[in-house]
């Protein structure tokens, strides 16, 4: 009895799936047939509709043609409507021009400030674009991006294929300049040094970090906060006196258009990475490797 009931249920489910498949395959045909029928119905009723509207308009005009106040109010209302329509059209035209320029530059997303929704959206997009990809990261200390569990790239760095990371050398003149311009209340020299140390400790603890993760420490004040994840580049500007988190983050995509800015930021990172004056930090030994040879990092 149970076997018979089970077989009957499978037959009903299979019949329902086939019916749904047939209906789904015919949806486009039903849509076009419905559009044709609706168009024919509208075209057939147009003469009666216009005749009815004309009669109502003539009857209304006969009643109000001598009402001066009503005519003045009508003129004012029409003028306001025209102003609103033309202003809206001008705004749309401006937005269209800006959208066209953004597409020409390759910009596909903009995250404003440090809002909660913006952070969640950016984190999801970065995780989607960086999974099993070669990534490139440039920042100041990397603490809030990599070490913080709520950081945008905390889980990304664990699931990427390879990673090239550039951070600010906490013992360099650029670090001193960054601390001086941003203000002592925001971050101190010890805070910057501690955050870089925690980022290095985090990277060294990752599985297979010594094979697929490389780290370099640059000496100049930070200019761009870059995260090149596959074919997308996430860009923020390091303002001399502002926290980088309050500034907008732009996303550029790689395409075949030479006017896009993805290539420019990619080349900037590659140029900085290949600069022989910037030493590489050996995550295994803790040495800074440069042209002059290895030296122990402080």
Structure description:
The chain is α+β, with helices and mostly antiparallel strands and 298 residues long. It has two domains: 12-99, no CATH class; 109-296, 2-Layer Sandwich (Endonuclease, Chain A), CATH 3.30.870. It has helices spanning 2-25, 27-64, 68-105, 116-130, 143-147, 156-159, 173-182, 189-204, 209-212, 262-273, and strands at 107-111, 134-138, 162-168, 213-218, 224-229, 232-237, 249-253, 280-281, 287-290, 293-296. It has a ten-stranded mixed β-sheet with strand order 1-7-6-5-2-3-4-8-9-10, sandwiched between helices. Strand 8 (280-281) and strand 9 (287-290) form a beta hairpin.
Sheet/helix structural class? alpha+beta
Query: How many separate helices?
Result: 10
- How far the N terminus sits from the C terminus, by CA atoms, comes to 79 Å
Which homologous superfamily in CATH is the superfamily of the largest domain? Endonuclease Chain A
The appropriate CATH architecture of the largest domain is 2-Layer Sandwich
Following the backbone from N to C, one meets helices and strands in this order, namely HHHEHEHHEHHHEEEEHEEE
Strands of the biggest beta sheet: in what spatial order? 1-7-6-5-2-3-4-8-9-10
Uncertain spans, ≥5 residues at pLDDT below 50? none
Q: Characterize the largest beta sheet: strand count, sense, and whether it forms a barrel.
A: 10 strands, mixed
How many DSSP E strands?
Answer: 10
Output the CATH topology of the largest domain.
Endonuclease, Chain A
Rg value: 32 Å
Average pLDDT across residues? Answer: 81
| Approximate helicity band | 55-70%
- State the domain count: 2
* Overall shape: elongated
What top-tier CATH class of the largest domain fits best? Alpha Beta
Strand residue content: 15-25%
């Amino acid at each position: 009895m149970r076997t018979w009931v089970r077989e009957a249920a499978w037959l009903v489910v299979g019949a329902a799936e086939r019916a749904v498949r047939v209906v789904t395959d015919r949806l486009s045909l039903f849509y076009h047939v419905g559009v044709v029928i609706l168009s024919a119905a509208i075209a057939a009723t147009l003469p009666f509709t216009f005749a009815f509207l004309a009669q109502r308009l003539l009857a209304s005009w006969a009643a109000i043609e001598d009402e001066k106040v009503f005519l003045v109010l009508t003129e004012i209302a029409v003028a306001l409507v025209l102003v609103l329509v033309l202003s809206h059209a001008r705004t749309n035209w401006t937005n269209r021009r800006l959208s066209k320029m953004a597409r020409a530059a390759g910009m596909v997303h903009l995250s404003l400030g440090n809002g909660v929704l913006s952070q969640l959206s950016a984190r999801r997009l970065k995780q989607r674009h960086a999974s099993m990809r070669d990534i490139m990261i440039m920042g100041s200390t990397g603490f809030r991006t990599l070490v913080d569990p709520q950081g945008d790239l905390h889980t990304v760095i664990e699931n990427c294929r390879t990673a090239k990371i550039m951070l600010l050398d906490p013992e360099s003149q650029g670090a001193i300049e960054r601390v001086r311009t941003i203000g002592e209340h925001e971050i101190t020299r010890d805070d910057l040094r501690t955050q870089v140390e925690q980022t290095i400790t985090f990277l060294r603890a990752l599985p297979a970090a010594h094979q697929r993760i490389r780290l370099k420490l640059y000496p100049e004040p930070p200019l761009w906060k870059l995260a090149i994840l596959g074919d997308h580049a996430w860009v923020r500007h390091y303002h001399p006196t502002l926290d980088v988190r309050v500034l907008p983050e732009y996303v550029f995509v790689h395409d075949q258009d030479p006017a896009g800015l993805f290539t420019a930021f990619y080349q900037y990172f590659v140029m900085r990475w290949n600069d022989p004056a910037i030493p590489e930090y050996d995550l295994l030994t803790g040495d800074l490797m440069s042209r002059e040879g290895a030296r122990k990092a402080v």
